[in-house]
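Progress report, Aim 2. The chain analyzed during this reporting quarter is listed below.
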Amino acid sequence: MWKSIFDVFILILVTYSCIYTILNNTFDFEQQYAIWVTYWVVESFFYLDFFLSWFQGFRDVEEQKIIFEFKKIAKRYLRTWFFIDFISIFPFPLFLGTGGQVTKLFRLPRMLRLVKILDINNVKSLLIRFQGEISNAN
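Predicted structure tokens for the chain:
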């Protein structure tokens, strides 16, 4: 159940991150300390999600069972969400500097997180799984 709750939480953070990225790239506003701290707290959850994705089991359609073997999980993750997750969490400003309009363009890959929200099947299965786990807990 904790993974379903975490996935819903990550979905909310992805929405926040997309809105923040759009606003930050559109308007040139001064970052305050609270916004900076919030940004890094959200980023740390994305790093945690990236790490946990390497160990999250998945349902094999052919065998109709849940797979927990690291090699199969890694292989599937590398074929599916790895590229989007990696590009969206890569710290471009750390390597390219933090000033100027050009570095704002390197924040745009973070918008790839939006793909996770737009994947309706993923969101639907997540919500069904979350609802089922809540009803099983009661």
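Residues 2-26 form the longest helix (25 residues). The mean pLDDT is 78. These observations will guide the mutagenesis work planned for the next reporting period.
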